[in-house]
Amino acid sequence: MVQAPEAPTDESARPAADAPRVAAGAQARPPTPNRAGALLRGATSRWAGVVAAVALWELLPRLGILPAEYIPPASVVLPTLVGLFGDGAFWSDVGATLSGWAIGLVLSTVVAVPLGLLIGTNTALHRATRVIVEFFRPIPSVALIPLAILVFGITLDMKVFLIVFATFWPILVQSVYGVQDVDPVARDSARSFGLNRREIFFHITLPSAAPYVVTGLRLASALAIVLAVTAELVAGAPGLGRSILVAQSAGASDLMYALIVVTGLVSLLLSAALSAAERRLLHWHTSHRAVQA
Amino acid sequence: MLVEVENLRKAYGSGPTAHLAIADISFEVGVGEFVCIVGPSGCGKTTLLRCLSGLMPPTSGFVKLHGTAIDRPPQEMGLVFQEYNRSLLPWMTVRRNVELPLKKKIRVAAERSRAVDDALAAVGLTGFGDRYPWQLSGGMQQRVAIARAMAYRPEILLMDEPFASLDAQTRIELEDLVLQVRHEFGVTVLFVTHDIDEAVYLADRIVVLSAPPCTVAEVLDVPLPTPRNQTATKALPEFAELRAHVYRQILGDR
């Protein structure tokens, strides 16, 4: 998750420089029977993996290979999970966790993106802020939990503070990278056609930086959900994390596992939603262009 | 004179580590002329083009347009770069790419739209407006770049090795397209290339540059008959003579 400032090794952090171009007329071809078959096989094997995992979850505790008192089998946990969906308290937990995620992420974004774009376009500012960013960025947000409790108490603000601190840096750093990666030829073209600084910013710089910023947001979103649950678990702010702790201390291990599964599902849904939004927004980018054989 | 280049000099850096890219270049371009600039590899052609287009200030000397020294990209020039895939914006359709520079020049949307249609028609891309550049072949993308430059209605079309990254057949098609566009729009063309055949085939006049630090080795008239034709023109003995002459200038006797 933590990237070096100069050369991020994580493939996802930097959009691919170039990819094979799609020749004219290659799109909008209906899937051939072969392709449809391949898709179906893909889906089948994906779900086969899930079914196998659930089957193991059921069998291992039942056969006594795993201790059933700590790890209740799937047939015990899954009904509890389904039962949660009719429970109002559960939904207010989900709401509390998600509102921490959303408020934190929005606050981070509205501050870090403009700041990153500014730092990225200003060499002096970039130099001046570099050490500060490199100092704060590696500090684990959880290390600030005592401080956050001291300042904000056990409140939503405390959770939001931790999430903002954790997500601010990846968004900032990605925005700085993005704005620095504007293609000089694209900028020269725009300048040669008399576009002014404002027009170049909106038509060239911003769209060029967008893939980086979106990558930052995707990293930040995953961090935000981790931080929300952690803050609830450790500090006891209302939400899924606190309910997991409560279930555990009440000895309701089926409920504890059901809630753990829910946190996984919530992360999965958020990440899928972000990916879908990204594909729509950045459909032109090399990593999203529909390549058909 | 439309363009006058006077004692243009460009050095990168300063002091003992300074790199002199262009020592001293002077030449002139008249209205309606097709002038090719050729030179040996690494002779500072791109530096020259950046100075000519006003994207970069020269260290000393002038580029004058209608007698006035330029200090920024002038409205009268339309640029076509070698790297079409970087010069066109991938997040905009072909139509929006061509339209973007026109926003301030043509205020009325309907007129602007017609200018885009005309330019796309002139390069043979009618009906491709709603595609994205990356959905087109390299040759078609460079046509879009030419359409964008021509829709801007420049007095001078400035081209920086525009066909260097295209295959030979596409290059031939686009050479003739440029001649045709020049004829249709009556535009002056300043064409930087490293391809000697291309320069002799296209130009009315050739500015031959020396090895770096770059100076003008020779300015050469190309009295070949017009309209040029890929087979007939290239079969002329005069074509072979001019070509051999420029080769000797650039590569020496080999």
Chain-averaged pLDDT of chain B: 91
Average pLDDT metric of chain A: 85
- How far apart, in Å, are the first and last alpha carbons of chain B? 37 Å
CATH homology-level superfamily of chain A: MetI-like
Shape of chain A: flat
CATH architectural arrangement of the domain at 1-76 and 157-162 and 204-254 in chain B: 3-Layer(aba) Sandwich
How many H/I helices of chain A? 10
CATH topology description of the domain at 1-76 and 157-162 and 204-254 in chain B: Rossmann fold
Give a quick account of the main beta sheet of chain B: strands, pairing sense, barrel closure.
10 strands, mixed
- Report Rg of chain B: 18 Å
Name of the CATH class of the domain at 1-76 and 157-162 and 204-254 in chain B: Alpha Beta
| C-alpha Rg of chain A (nearest Å) | 23 Å
Strand order of the largest sheet of chain B: 5-4-1-2-10-9-3-8-7-6
Assembly state: heterodimer
Largest interface: A-B, 25 and 33 residues
**CATH homologous superfamily descriptor of the domain at 1-76 and 157-162 and 204-254 in chain B:** P-loop containing nucleotide triphosphate hydrolases
CATH topology of chain A: MetI-like fold
The sequence of SSEs of chain A as H and E is HHHHHHHHHH
Number of helices of chain B: 9
Care to describe what's here?
The complex is a heterodimer of chains A (293) and B (254). Chain A is mainly alpha-helical and 293 residues long. Chain A has one domain: MetI-like fold, CATH 1.10.3720.10. Chain A is 71% helix and 0% strand. In chain A, α5 crosses α6. The two termini of chain A are 34 Å apart. In chain B, a hairpin with a 4-residue loop joins β9 and β10. Chain B is built from nine helices and ten strands. Chain B has a domain of 133 residues: P-loop containing nucleotide triphosphate hydrolases (Rossmann fold, 3-Layer(aba) Sandwich). With 254 residues, chain B is of the alpha/beta class. Chain B has a ten-stranded mixed beta sheet with strand order 5-4-1-2-10-9-3-8-7-6, sandwiched between helices. The model of chain B has no long low-confidence stretch (mean pLDDT 91). At the A-B interface, α7 and α8 of A face β6, α2 and α5 of B.
